Amino acid sequence: EAGVAQSPRYKIIEKRQSVAFWCNPISGHATLYWYQQILGQGPKLLIQFQNNGVVDDSQLPKDRFSAERLKGVDSTLKIQPAKLEDSAVYLCASSFGDRGYEQYFGPGTRLTVT
Amino acid sequence: GQQVMQIPQYQHVQEGEDFTTYCNSSTTLSNIQWYKQRPGGHPVFLIQLVKSGEVKKQKRLTFQFGEAKKNSSLHITATQTTDVGTYFCADGASGGSYIPTFGRGTSLIVHP
Known about the structure:
The complex is a heterodimer.
Chain A: E1 5-7, E2 10-13, E3 19-24, E4 31-37, E5 44-50, E6 53-56, E7 65-68, E8 75-79, E9 88-95, E10 104-105, E11 109-113
Parallel strand pairs in A: 2-11
Antiparallel strand pairs in A: 1-3, 3-8, 4-5, 4-9, 5-6, 7-8, 9-10, 9-11
Chain B: E1 4-7, E2 10-14, E3 19-25, E4 32-37, E5 44-49, E6 55-58, E7 61-65, E8 71-76, E9 85-91, E10 101-102, E11 106-111
Parallel strand pairs in B: 2-11
Antiparallel strand pairs in B: 1-3, 3-8, 4-5, 4-9, 6-7, 7-8, 9-10, 9-11
């Protein structure tokens, strides 16, 4: 089966610019996660969707980050405006269910903010 | 939310030596998942432990879940260079309010 797809793989922007990331989960997976992984740390959950509804976004910096999953399939994560501290790898993952299911990760988008 | 702590942060071993990483939580975990991330790669699911005291093996990897379900370990016997990567434990809660929480990870460096 096809894995989780993400694009772009790399992005370099200047601070205060905006950027968007795209994710297409594994077919049939209802749950989609966006994580931020800073170098040397574990993935930190930003937002979790169940189908097209938000399950948790308590760790999403809502003043600059937004995400949507309009048709319950693919998703976009946006940052506007970007800050230097947003430099990280943004990982998308999907799972069959929302708890206790293994997560399948995409290759990630490496964001560098200069 | 849940906090999972992992130790050590880094471990250097000679090829053929054993390796263990530990994951600890201040609260009881419903279950725990382990992932491996190769350098430059993305996390890949290894295993999930659910039962108190559970032990599972995958070839040279042995996973344990503590009796109190507050800690877990991953042990690799006779490491190989292919074992290089960062090993993460994650709270894989199966009920109630749940925010997937990953530990900081243990980076394994294997010297040939």
